[in-house]
Amino acid sequence: MNSAAKLIASFILASALLQGCSTTQVNKPADVLYKEGEQFFKDGKYEDAIAQWKKVKETYQSAELTTKSELNIADAYFLNKDYIEAAAGYEDFRKLHPKHPQADFALYRQGLSYFNEIHSIDTDQTPVKNAQMTFDSYLKLYPTGAQLAEVKAKRMECRDKQLQYELYVGRFYLKTDAYKAAIARFEESLKMFTDLARRDEVLYYLGKAYLEDSQKAKGIEVFARLAREYPGSAFLQEAYKAMNSLPK
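^ thats the sequence. predicted structure below, dont judge the formating
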C-alpha cells in the first residue's frame, strides 16, 4: 500500500472511531441537565452541578434556564469557596441581567466573595477595597434591599480592616524611625475614618510619633485630645508613660 492509500485508510478509520464515540453520547434536553445540576447542588457536589449548568447554557434551548444556570453557577462557586470565580460569576450575571429580581442578591454575594478573600492585615488589601466598593454600590443602588443590614455591617468591617492596615503601616514607620511618614499616615487616618472605634489608638500613635520627632508640644496636644475624647481608653496609660519619659 502506497503512502497516499495509507493516509486515506487512516482517515477513514479515524472517522469511524469518531462516529462510534459520538453515538455513545446522549444529548439531553436543557431541563433534564438543569435538574441534574440541582440534584448535584443539593448533594454538595458543586463542581458537578457547575458542569451540568454550563451544559444548559451551551444548549441554547431555554433563555430562562440559561439565566437561572448563570446565577446558580455563581452560587455553586461561592459555596465551594471558589470566591474569585464566584465574584466573576455574580458580576457577569449583573451585567447580563441588570434589572433581574435577584440582581441585588448577586451584588451582595459579589461583595461577600471579595470579603471572604480577605486574609491578614499585612497582605494585599485589594479584596478589602473591592468588597467595600461593592457594598457601597449596593447601598447606592438598593437602599431598601433585602440584604441592607448585613451589607452595612460588612462595609463597616471593611473600613475597620482598612484602618487596621493604616495603623500597621504607621507603626512600621514609627519602628523604623520614619517619624514624619508615620505622622502623615496617622493624620490621614483621623480624617478618613471619623466613624470608627479605633480612633483612640490612632491618636495615641500620632502623639507618640510627634514626641519621637521632637515635636513635644504637638505630642502633648494630641495626648490631651485623647484624654478629652476617650477618657476610658486603654491607650491613656501608655500616653502618660510616654509623656513621663520626656526629658524634664
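Residues 16-26 have pLDDT under 50 and may be disordered.
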